[in-house]
Amino acid sequence: MPAGPGGASAPPTLTVAVLTLNEAHRIEACLQSAAFADQLLVVDSGSTDDTVALAQRLGAEVHSYPDWQGFAVQRNRLLAHARGDYIFFLDADEVMTPAFAQELQAIVRSGAQAVWTIRWRMVAYGHELKHFRSQSQIERLFVRAMVREFTGVVHEQAELLPPPGGGAVPRRLIEARLLHYSRTTVRGSLEKLTQYAMLGAAKRAAAGKKGGVVRGLASGTSMFLRLYVFRLGFLCGGAGFLYCLFVALEAFFRYAALEYDHQQLSESVRR
Question: Are 17 and 88 within 8 A, CB to CB?
Fold first, then answer.
């Protein structure tokens, strides 16, 4: 970490980095929960609503890049503007609880060299899915100097430099969970269905996988059973059912699109 006045070691600093596109309806809650960061950084992908103005009003440093080239490119732009010793990637539909913020700040103060994953507390259609067993663990906190770049056609991943002294980069877990407002309305879920299904189809097209209705039915049915039954979505009422159903529909349409939109997907991957 950098030296402070008189050669003393300065406290490590934190950048909280957010990607946005037309997030005016929820960007305030997101950024307010991260107001403690040394640098609150937003890269906007060409919003036509008040996202940029709201973010600036909340003290965020905003850079606009409307030439969408994928999530990896946008995250690399966040990296280019980040000044903190640590960088935490926060999505616009996420909110840090006080417990999460405290744990994050403690990690930064410790100066530890690692990558940290997060887990979610899911919120859907105005209800927290308290009984839902969310098992997703996603890398979000990095030592800035250890991140070379993000790569990937669809789902980006960080390419890391080895820590001082060599060896593998340690992986650790942030114990407090991040609030994830995954889906707020049925209409919004229907609008996102196409986006998520096509992103998943493009990923599979890049990997040379095959699609089809039967594969889609198998994938969608398996996904619904896994979420609704084994991860206890059935204990979360109507909101839990809708959440599981939409994720299952995305799984089905990924394989349907992979079969019937194969040419368009191949062209998008080549670009």
Answer: yes
Cα 5 versus chain centre, distance: 37
Backbone angles phi, psi at 182, to 5 degrees: -60, -50
- Helix ranges, the chain (H): 27-33, 51-57, 71-81, 98-110, 186-206, 213-225, 237-260, 262-270
Statement: residue 39 has pLDDT above 70: yes
CB 173 within 8 A of CB 116: yes
88 phi and psi angles, rounded to 5 deg: -115, 125
Residues 185-209: tens digit of each pLDDT: 999 999 889 988 988 888 888 788 8
Q: What percent of the chain has pLDDT over 70?
A: 94
Angle between helices 213-225 and 237-260 (to 10 degrees): 160
**d(Cα 107, Cα 119) in Å, to the nearest integer?**
16
